[in-house]
Amino acid sequence: MRKKIEKQYILNRETLDYELVEQPSRMRKSIKAVLLYGLSSVSLFVLMLYLMAEVYQVPTPRRMLVERESREWHSKLDILERRLESAGLALQDMERRDNMLYRSVFGMETIPDDIRNAGYGGVDRYADIRERDYTGEVTSAVTYTDILLKKAYIQSKSFDQVALVSERAAEMAVCAPTIPPVNYAHVRQASGFGMRVDPILKNRHRKHQGVDLAPKSGKDGEPVYVTGNGVVKSVGYDAGGYGRFVLVDHGFGYQTRYAHLSKALVEPGQEVLRGQQIAEMGNTGRSTGTHLHYEVIYMGKHVNPVNYYNKDILPEDYAAIIDSSNEKPMS
Question: Under 8 Å CB-to-CB from 218, ≥6 apart: which residues?
Answer without folding.
Answer: 289, 290
